[in-house]
Design the sequence.
C-alpha cells in the first residue's frame, strides 16, 4: 500500500494523462464549481454481482440492526424517534432541482430528494452506518460466544453492568485508508457501549525507527 507521499508523487506524474482522459480535472484544479454525472451508470441487476455481497448478507445485517434497536434507543436517545434505527431524513431540494434543470436544459420530472446522511444520529456522518454497525456486529459476536447473550434477547440488557464489565476487556482500533494518517478508536472501558465518551487517536505515518505518540481528542 502506498503512503500519502508516494500516492501524491504518482498522481502528479500521471496528471497530464489524467487531464487528457478527463478534461473535467482542469475545472477541479481551477477550483471551479463543477457538476459531474457518472456516464457509466448501469442497472442494479448488472452492477450487483460486482458488489461482493449477497441478499443473505443484506438480510443478516438488517436483522442484526433490528436486534440492536432497543439498545440503541436507550443508549443514544437521539435514535428514539426512529425506534433505535440509525436513519437519516429524506428532504426535497427544489432549488437544486431548478439549477440542474437549467444546467441540463431539460425538465427533471418528479421531486429531487436529498438523503441527509450528514445528520445521521450518533456520529453525524455516514460512518454512523458502516462503522457503528461493525462495532455492534463485533460486540454481538463476543457476547454470543461468551454465552452472555442470545439473538432472542432484548438487547437493551447490554446496558447492564455485567456487560460493561465484560466489554471492558476489549478495545477497538479502526484503520482508515486514503488519509494522511491512521485513525484509531480506543473505547476506554467500553464506554461506547454505554453512550459515554469516545477517544479518537490520530497516529501519523512514521518510519519504524521513529517513535510517535498518538494525539487523543475526547469526543
Sequence:
Amino acid at each position: 500500500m502506498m503512503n500519502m507521499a508516494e500516492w501524491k508523487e504518482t498522481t502528479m506524474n500521471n496528471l497530464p494523462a489524467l487531464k487528457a482522459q478527463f478534461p473535467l480535472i482542469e475545472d477541479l484544479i481551477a477550483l471551479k464549481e463543477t457538476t459531474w454525472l457518472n456516464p457509466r451508470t448501469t442497472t442494479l441487476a448488472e452492477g450487483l454481482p460486482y458488489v461482493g455481497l449477497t441478499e443473505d448478507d443484506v438480510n443478516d445485517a438488517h436483522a442484526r440492526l433490528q436486534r440492536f434497536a432497543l439498545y440503541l434507543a436507550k443508549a443514544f436517545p437521539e435514535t428514539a424517534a426512529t425506534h433505535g434505527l440509525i436513519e437519516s431524513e429524506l428532504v426535497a431540494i427544489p432549488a437544486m432541482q431548478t439549477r440542474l434543470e437549467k444546467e441540463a436544459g431539460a425538465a427533471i420530472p418528479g421531486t429531487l430528494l436529498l438523503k441527509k446522511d450528514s445528520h445521521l444520529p450518533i456520529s453525524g456522518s455516514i460512518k454512523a452506518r458502516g462503522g457503528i454497525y461493525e462495532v455492534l456486529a463485533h460486540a454481538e459476536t463476543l457476547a454470543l460466544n461468551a454465552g452472555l447473550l442470545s439473538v432472542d434477547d432484548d438487547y437493551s440488557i447490554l446496558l447492564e453492568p455485567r456487560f460493561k464489565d465484560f466489554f471492558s476487556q476489549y478495545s477497538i482500533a479502526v484503520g482508515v485508508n486514503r488519509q494522511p494518517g491512521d485513525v484509531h478508536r480506543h473505547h476506554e472501558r467500553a464506554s461506547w457501549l454505554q453512550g459515554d465518551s469516545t477517544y479518537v487517536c490520530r497516529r501519523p505515518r512514521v518510519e519504524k525507527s521513529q517513535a510517535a505518540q498518538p494525539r487523543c481528542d475526547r469526543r
Remarks:
- Residues 178-219 have pLDDT under 50 and may be disordered.
- Helices lie at 4-21, 24-29, 44-47, 55-75, 94-104, 127-145, 161-167.
